[in-house]
Amino acid sequence: MVSSCELCCEVIIAILLPPLGVCLRHGCCTVEFFICLILTILGYIPGIIYAIYAILFLNRDDYYDEYRRPIYYVA
Known about the structure:
75 residues
């Protein structure tokens, strides 16, 4: 579980630089990062909205358990 201080810092970073906030939470070569990067290039506000959504509501660990993990996933 993420501490509230860490979560608050990530949200502040996501407001200032949306792709960096998503990169800290999900990694730099993920789909979430590239979606946030494209949305930030197209418009700053959509990038912020998606970054906050990706930080607060998306949890990739729920989707990558032993039975539902994709073929290309390397543990």
